[in-house]
Design brief:
Blueprint: E1 3-6, E2 22-27, E3 33-39, H1 42-73, H2 77-86, H3 93-111, H4 121-133, H5 138-157, H6 184-191, H7 196-208, H8 212-216, E4 223-225, E5 228-231, E6 234-236, E7 241-243, E8 254-257, H9 260-273, E9 282-283, E10 286-290, H10 293-304, H11 319-330, H12 335-342, H13 347-354, H14 362-370
Antiparallel strand pairs: 1-2, 2-3, 4-5, 5-8, 6-7, 9-10
Helix pairs in contact: 2-3, 3-5, 7-9, 7-11, 12-13
Length: 375
């Protein structure tokens, strides 16, 4: 912190009775050695040294914080998020791929060029509304919102914002009315509205509960029993190649029911169009590449434009997977099984999305429980 002394002939043991003033010596904030004198008592000299120490510490801390805010505040979101991603060392390969997908497809296109110091609750709210207008599914909205919050809260801890940009912002919430599910009659119309590729997708998603990317990786060898299909991988939209399942480690899988009609669709497609290493769907212009997701999206858009196809207002392709869950739950299949077949990370996700589809009520339960009670 510094030192104090007297510039006189008296020894240190005599300073308390010596009339000469004390001198202090310290290094300034620039590192130069400095002296001050004229302190009548040792206490005043020590007090001044303490003041200097506190001033240096406060100034240094303020300068460091100011420099940090200047550096990161002017940084573009894409650059900051890339640095933040590098620090997420606890994420597994599948989680990294999922994070990359959210960054590249949703966050960077809308926010990548924005300076970090320009974020506030209005910017976040506008981002959510833009995702809604672009037709992003609820799961995508929720996952993207969570990643944005993690990145901006990290910046908030650095001091970039005086208050959190999420104050007063409501996270994307599930609304049962948004899960538009086709009726069985509508599903029959939809499944025959496109080509054989489209019919195969419809049957896999509505009959087995596969995600879009999982259906794109359909493989004849995955029929492991007459009524069981094993989902081993998916086509990742970012890499356009095969990848582990969502929420699963490499080589993990999940088994799902295989209805007879879906099995027939798979067999018929393989017989008519052939396979490559067991894969039914490949890139239409290059069979060495995986099936491109945009090919399905383009066909779905064209089908929706046809006035003679009976498609519920607001339905998206993911509505086919909703149909699978609805079909299971309304026929009394336990939600625990449905959650496992759909590949949900935990049953809370399934319950939150599909609770309104589950049959029964307290009154119905009371009637069932009455059966075995003594009269």
């Amino acid at each position: 912190m510094g030192s104090f002394f007297k510039k006189c002939e008296h020894s240190q043991t005599q300073w308390s009775k010596c009339p000469h003033p004390y001198t202090i010596r310290y290094r300034s904030i620039t590192g130069r050695q400095t002296e001050e004198s004229g302190f009548t008592t040792q206490g005043k000299a020590v007090h001044r040294l303490t003041e200097i120490y506190n001033e240096k510490h406060t100034t240094h801390h303020s300068q460091t914080k100011f420099e940090r805010i200047q550096k990161y505040g002017m940084m573009r979101f894409e650059e900051y998020a890339t640095e933040w991603k590098a620090s997420q060392r606890d994420l597994g390969p599948a989680s990294i791929r999922h994070l990359d997908s959210l960054l590249q497809q949703h966050l960077f296109p809308l926010l990548g060029s924005r300076r970090m110091n320009s974020f506030d609750h209005k910017v976040v709210e506008d981002f959510i509304q833009t995702m809604e207008r672009n037709g992003a599914g609820l799961a995508t909205q929720s996952n993207t919102f969570d990643k944005l919050r993690a990145i901006l809260l990290d910046a908030h801890r650095l001091g970039l914002f005086s208050e959190s940009p999420f104050n007063g912002v409501k996270a994307p919430q599930y609304d049962p009315s948004r899960a538009v599910i086709p009726s069985p009659e509508q599903l029959r119309t939809i499944r025959t509205a496109g080509d054989d590729v489209f019919t195969l997708f419809v049957d896999l998603m509505s009959g087995c509960g596969l995600r879009n990317g999982e259906a794109a990786a359909v493989n004849l060898d995955n029929i492991v029993a007459d009524d069981v299909y094993r989902i081993r991988e998916q086509v990742n939209q970012t890499t356009a190649w095969y990848a582990p399942l969502k929420h699963r480690r490499p080589n993990n899988y999940r088994d799902v029911p295989l209805p007879a009609r879906v099995k027939q669709t798979i067999k018929r497609y393989a017989a008519e169009h052939g396979t490559v290493d067991g894969y039914l769907l490949r890139h239409p212009k290059d069979p060495t590449r995986a099936f491109p997701y945009y090919s399905l999206s383009n066909q779905w858009r064209r089908i929706k434009e046809k006035s003679h196809v009976d498609i519920p207002q607001g339905m998206v392709l993911y509505g086919l997977r909703h149909f699978f869950a609805s079909n299971c739950l309304t026929h009394g299949i336990p939600i625990t099984d449905v959650a496992e077949w759909m590949g949900h990370k935990n049953i809370d996700v399934t319950f939150k999305i599909y609770r309104h589809l589950m049959p029964g009520s307290i009154s119905a339960a009371a009637r069932v429980l009455e059966f075995d009670l003594a009269a």
